[in-house]
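Target chain:
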Amino acid sequence: MYGITATAHRWLTDYLLQRKQFVQVKESKSCLCNQIRDVPQGSILGPLFFILYVNDLPTCSNTLNSILFTDDTSLFLEHKDPNILINQLNYELQNVSAWLKAVNLCEQN
């Protein structure tokens, strides 16, 4: 979608796939686990990769306003009638939830 092809695509695929992680607290370590949804934290490219990954989040709703900045996303909706606001917001959050599931950013039910 962003025009990343050939060598650059293979490099990014190798960089992002088959990542592993563990947690260490003092001397205790967890087991090594496959990381299936991540952007390498602490890398210079991490914020860019995350932005590319979530860049089309605003397209899942024609009603919500959004601000995306690095790894922080804010969604906004306003209406004078609180009852309409609640109903509309719940509907739009279902669209956001469907988008998150579609791009594997949350678990499927």
Notes: The chain has a mean pLDDT of 87. Helices lie at 6-16, 46-54, 82-102. Strands lie at 19-21, 24-25, 28-29, 33-35, 65-69, 72-76.
